[in-house]
């Protein structure tokens, strides 16, 4: 079984798992009502999420990088593996924890803007101006889409609530 997973490439295997999960989610979401009078029903968000996840799984499966063939080994030359850098993952995970804590205290919109800004600066290495502009546009756009268009009440936080 493990050899079959390795032969599939890990990216294609993850795409397959995501696709199966998305299809299972879509089938369960179709059993719920999608809309109610003047608002969305309980099945709307899982349906939107499942379609997005299915699109992502298909894109990941189609754009998966092929496995690189190992160069022939020479006994006189030993190749070292490159060191693994987990810094970006640790920083992202730490920022996610900070994001969840900040949602409770200052609300969704400021927390999302702060999270986006810090992630773009620390992990993606964008300039401060580009990170600030993108964070404001992204946070404002998501807040407007969920709060005003979908009428989903977002957490105001203890400070502003």
Summarize the structure in words.
There is one protein chain. By secondary structure, the chain is mainly alpha-helical. It is about 65% helix and about 0% strand. A two-stranded antiparallel ribbon has the order 1-2. A hairpin with a 2-residue loop joins strand 1 and strand 2.
Keywords:
161 residues; mainly alpha; two-stranded antiparallel ribbon; 7 helices; 66% helix; 2% strand; flat
List the helices and strands and how they pair.
Elements: H1 2-8, H2 10-29, E1 35-36, E2 39-40, H3 44-62, H4 87-106, H5 108-122, H6 128-149, H7 157-160
Please summarize what this structure is.
By secondary structure, the protein is mostly helical. The chain is 66% helix and 2% strand.
Radius of gyration: 21 Å
What is the SS-derived class?
mainly alpha
Globular, elongated, flat, extended or rod-shaped: what is the shape? Answer: flat
Largest β-sheet summary? 2 strands, antiparallel
| Annotation, overall tally of beta strands | 2
In the sheet with the most strands, the strands line up as 1-2
What is the helix tally? 7
**What are the segments in which pLDDT stays under 50 over at least 5 consecutive residues?**
none
Instruction: Give the termini distance in whole angstroms.
Output: 52 Å
Question: pLDDT average, as an integer?
Answer: 83
């Amino acid at each position: 079984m493990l050899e079959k997973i390795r032969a599939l490439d890990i990216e294609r295997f993850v795409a397959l798992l995501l696709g199966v999960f998305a299809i299972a989610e879509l089938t369960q979401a179709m059993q719920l009502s999608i809309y109610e009078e003047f608002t969305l029903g309980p099945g709307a968000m899982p349906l939107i999420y499942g379609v997005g996840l299915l699109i992502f799984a298909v894109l990941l499966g189609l754009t998966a990088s092929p496995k690189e063939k190992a160069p022939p080994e020479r006994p006189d030359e030993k190749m070292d593996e490159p060191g693994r850098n987990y810094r970006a993952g640790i920083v992202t995970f730490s920022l996610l924890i900070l994001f969840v804590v900040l949602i409770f205290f200052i609300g969704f919109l400021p927390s999302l803007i702060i999270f986006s800004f810090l992630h773009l600066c620390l992990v993606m290495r964008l300039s401060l101006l580009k990170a600030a502009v993108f964070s404001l546009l992204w946070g404002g756009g998501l807040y407007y889409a969920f709060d005003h268009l979908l009428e989903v009440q977002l957490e105001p936080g203890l400070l502003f609530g």
